[in-house]
Write a structure and sequence with these properties.
Layout lengths: L9 H6 L5 H4 L5 H8 L12 E6 L4 E7 L3 E7 L2 E9 L15 H18 L31 E3 L10 H11 L14 E2 L3 E2 L1 H8 L2 H13 L1 H7 L1 H5 L7 H14 L23 H24 L1
Parallel strand pairs: 1-5, 2-3
Antiparallel strand pairs: 1-2, 2-4, 3-4, 6-7
Helix pairs in contact: 4-5, 4-10, 7-8
């Protein structure tokens, strides 16, 4: 077969259709989004809830959405509806003051989202989840009349390698009592030969890897330790405190997962434009100008 010349003429460009904006920007995987948002036709207007996990440089965002960071959401034509959200910058309330984007904090954020959402929909007492983070694979089962709340994981553009932090969030949500379809093969501690090691995953959830690295670095290079863990040192957190810190945080989250409502601040708006002069001010200005001109005229006549 011979080579075919590629002709990009006027007819080609007249018919060219550009990709969707968020695809062009590299923000949305529409192949995945379609499958995450399309609901079965026989379920009519029932929302298909998604567990949305996003990581920034300083935060973990989890949301429950009807189809949109940690969020639970669902989709509508006019856009995604976020039902519940939790952020890792809320964790200092529960005693986790540093390391807000690591694996252990990702798990804690997922747990916070699950407990908060179940509290909002009145299922917190029915579905308590796995009350101790022991690393065991846990799936929520139906209890009583109401079925467990179900949401499917939406990882966005994150790479879904075994042991990734997005699965730490998912594990936290599942342990919190929300039904998230998953397999243990993606959790930290799994490999094809030895299968799933729950103990290794438990250590990861409680931040043992951070504590081990703190101990190692302190022994090898004191200056590097002070640089790398400066915020831990400032918060007076040592390697021995890490695991207890996360255990206490999990208990505190279960005790009070509700969102903290801040009182609105009274804001005094700054005015950057000149105020419109009133009639009295304008009349007074005219009067002053006339008096000034009269004075100048009198001075000229005097000379």
């Amino acid at each position: 077969m011979g080579f075919v010349k590629v002709v990009k003429n006027k007819a080609y460009f007249k018919r060219y259709q550009v990709k969707l904006k968020r695809r062009r920007e590299g923000k949305t995987d529409y192949y995945a989004r379609k499958r995450l948002t399309v609901q079965d036709k026989n379920k009519y207007n029932t929302p298909k809830y998604r567990l949305i996990v996003r990581f920034t440089n300083r935060d973990v965002i989890a949301q429950v959405s009807q189809a949109t960071l940690l969020q639970i959401a669902y989709s509508r034509i006019e856009g995604d509806v976020v039902v519940c959200a939790a952020y890792s910058h809320e964790l200092p309330r529960y005693g986790i003051k540093v390391g807000l984007t690591n694996y252990a904090s990702a798990y804690a954020t997922g747990l916070l989202l699950a407990r908060r959402h179940l509290l909002n929909i009145g299922l917190a007492e029915t579905y308590k989840g796995l009350e101790e983070a022991n690393g065991d694979d846990y799936n929520v089962e139906k209890e009583g009349e109401r079925a467990p709340f179900r949401a499917v994981l939406d990882v966005g553009l994150a790479r879904t390698v075994t042991g990734a932090k997005v699965f730490a969030v998912m594990k936290g949500v599942a342990d919190g009592g929300i039904d998230v379809p998953h397999s243990e093969t993606r959790f930290f501690g799994y490999n094809s030969e030895t299968k799933y090691n729950a103990e290794a995953h438990r250590d990861r959830i409680l931040g043992k890897h951070v504590a081990d690295y703190m101990t190692l670095l302190k022994e090898q290079d004191e200056e590097a330790y002070k640089r790398h863990f400066s915020r831990f040192i400032a918060a007076n957190i040592s390697a021995d405190d890490i695991m207890d810190m996360y255990k206490k945080a999990h208990e505190a989250i279960r005790k009070n997962p509700a969102r903290e409502i801040k009182e609105p601040k009274e804001i005094t708006k700054k005015r950057w434009t000149a105020k419109k002069a009133s009639l009295a001010v304008r009349k007074n200005r005219v009067k002053n100008k006339k008096a000034y001109l009269k004075m100048l005229k009198a001075q000229q006549e005097a000379q």
